[in-house]
Amino acid sequence: MKARELAVEGAFEFVPEVFPDHRGLFVSPFQHEAFEAAVGRPLFPVAQLSTSTSRRGVLRGVHFTRTPPGCAKYVHCARGRVLDVVVDLRVGSPTFGRWDAVELSGEDFRGVYLPTGVGHAFTALENDSAVCYLLSRGYDPANELALSPVDPELGLPWPDSVVPVLSERDRDAVSFAGARAAGLLPEYQECLRSDMAPDRG
Known about the structure:
By secondary structure, this protein is mainly β.
């Protein structure tokens, strides 16, 4: 498995080897040794495994968890194809406000690790795209926050060829500047503490 740090500090892309044959294929989208070698610590204790399916054009995000408690994620696409985006929302981070994008698909099974405080968004490039998430904390709607994925200040790289389909929550989400002014964005040092001492919440 190959690993590459993204433009957002602490976020990584992982590319596993895929083994196809006449029966189908075999792949391991997450591998502990490769993760620990790249990130410098083991994967968080997994509290929840979630899957979303989306038709072409669905745009989800930018989602993040109030910190504390915070939530780290490991994401891969099991079927279809998505453009996955990570956004550094951690106030005080050396890459605060920066984003990076990775195309994930059910052909190469790339994975993306998002440390606590990094926002997540994606758009489905094909119908019936399935995205799987390993989460360090169980879902609690009281702690889940969202920024507008089409905020021009963020300038996220959504393709012009795809008409965005947003939930009401994402359509009405606050801007990046609005979230910062309201004190909703997490502090970098608090996020680091959460990542170094994760619990199952």
